[in-house]
Structure formats: structure tokens, C-alpha cells
Amino acid sequence: IVLQWQGILREAFYWTFTNHSIPYLFFSRGVLHTLAFTGACLLLIIGASLTFWDDNGIWVSKKAERFALIGLLIASAVGVAAGARFYPHYYIQLIPPLALLAAPNFARLWCGKTRPRAFLLRPAVTLAWLTITVIAFSVSHWKFLARDREPSETARYLAEHCAPNDRIFVWGRSAAEIYLQARRRPACRYVLTFPLTGLIFGGELPDTDTRNRIVPGAWDKLTEDFRRHPPVLIADLSSNPGAQYPAHDFPILTRLLAEHYQPVARTAQSVIYRIR
Asked: Measured between alpha carbons, how far is 184 from 169 in angstroms, rounded to an integer?
């Protein structure tokens, strides 16, 4: 009722459900990422699995809680697979139920109330294993964040060659981060370009035609936005050979660049155009 009252019910339904339909099953990605998650979180999985061999009665008086946590684990597994894309961050939802199921078992092991079933479950081994896991994940995340400490060459050029109140447009999959790094407002509503291309999230599908997934009216809205506030600079991130959605595949964008813009720079990531 609220969404209908605000006039955005159709859009909300599209972005919540229709756009996230399953056009392609990334099976190999799912297998590889599931194996990677299993390896990285094996200690957690082992601890949670001990719940099913509850000889010492940890869960005897808490059967309802155990049932709820197992249900949450199953629901989380469904959530990981539901979109058929299997991105690594989807697997995060498995960690809370696994941790809550594993915690009582490891607490008893570490306090000496239960004898370990195997060498890998000895307190010294599990604590060392857990420490290594925490350090490994921390280093991995720090290295990932370190890449973004400095803006890309494209973002630096955009920031240095237009005024703070100028609008820009970035064409390509990494558009959002370029806007953020350059600290410039986009010239259109599409901070990401997938409504204009029909991109299927999940992995590269170079031989798949996704034009039937372009959001109806998206290109008309892009043209309208550009008419209201034309971008001073346009960065084409799809100019390198083999790019999935080169600008010349889209007539409106091709005509816009040919008639109103001229190339002024090339970076490692893009070709940059300035309005005439």
C-alpha cells in the first residue's frame, strides 16, 4: 500500500523480483565457491555438525532452539543458491547459524567438559586453526581495501578536468566506483549501466545476447537525463578489445559521442570524451 501510494510499486516489484530472475545457472562457479567456503570455514562446519551427535546432551533441553537454528541454516543455504549466481558474499548468511550451532560444542571442548572425538578437535589445534583463519581473512580484506586507497587513472582525470558541479557519465561495469573516486555527480539516473545493457550478473557470458533484458524505456530516460544536464565528460570503460558491451553496439550512445563529443584522453581503463 505504501509503495503504491508513493507511485513506485511497479519499480519496486521489478528491482526486487523481476530483475533478479534466473536467466542462467552458474553451476561451475557454484561448485568452486562452495568448495572454497567449505575449506575456509571447515572448522565452523565441523563444530556445527557435532550438533547431530549430541551425546553429552548440550541440546537436550533446547530442542526448539536447535530446530530453529537448523531451519535458519537451511533457509540461508537456499538464499545462497536462489539467484544461481553464487557470489562469495552470498555465503556470509551461512555463518550466523553455523556459528550459533558450533559455539556450545567448542565451548565444552575448550573448557574440558567434553573429550575431543579426533585430533583436529583438540583445544590447542582448534584455537590455532581459528587464529590462522582470522588472520588470513583479515590480511585478505586489508589487501582488497588497499587497492582502493588511491583513485584510478580515469577517476583522477575526470576530477582534474571538470568543475566540482559538472556532471559526468561513465559507461562500463565499474562505473559506480569511478563516480565515487572522481567525486562527481552522474549525468543520469543509471549509476550502473546494466539497465541499459541487460547484463546478467554472475559472470562473463560473451556469447549471450542480453538485449531482451534491457529495462523498457531505459534509453529514453537516459536521453531525457542528458537533455536536462549534459555530461561534460564521458568515460568509456568498454573501449578495450573483448569488452562485453562496447559503446558502438548501442546506437543512441554511438550517435551521441559522434555528434556532440570528441575524444580527449586515453587511460589504462578507458577512453575519455569531452563535450564540444
From this structure: 9
Grid cell digits, residue 25? 545457472
Please state, in angstroms and as integers, the Cα–Cα distance from residue 191 to each residue in 4, 32, 165, 249, following that order: 25, 30, 17, 19
Contacts of 36 (CB under 8 A, 6+ apart): 88
CA angle at 212 for the pair 209 and 217, rounded to the nearest 5°: 135
pLDDT profile of the chain (276 residues), mean per 10:
92 79 86 95 91 72 89 95 91 96 89 81 90 92 85 94 95 90 94 90 81 90 95 93 87 94 93 95
Half-sphere exposure of 146 (CA within 13 A, CB side): 6
Query: Which amino acid is residue 37, in one-letter code?
Result: F
Task: Note the pLDDT tens digit of each residue in 61-102.
Answer: 888 998 999 999 999 999 999 888 999 999 999 999 999 999
Bridge partners (DSSP) listed for residue 272:
235, 265
How far, in Å, CA of 276 to CA of 265, rounded?
14
**The pTM of the whole model exceeds 0.85:** no
Q: Which of 156, 162, 154 is nearest to 232 (CA)?
A: 162
C-alpha distances in angstroms, 150 versus 66, 145, 162?
Answer: 47, 10, 19
Q: Which of 137, 124, 64, 70 is nearest to 102 (CA)?
A: 70
Nearest to 231 by CA among 174, 175, 177: 175
Q: How far apart are CA 90 and CA 84, in angstroms?
A: 11
Strand partners, 233: 168, 274
How far CA 60 is from CA of 51, 64, 65, 73, in Å, comes to 11, 10, 10, 19
Looking at residue 234, the DSSP 8-state letter turns out to be: E
CA distance 211 to 198: 6
Residues paired with residue 274 on neighbouring β-strands, in sequence order:
233, 262
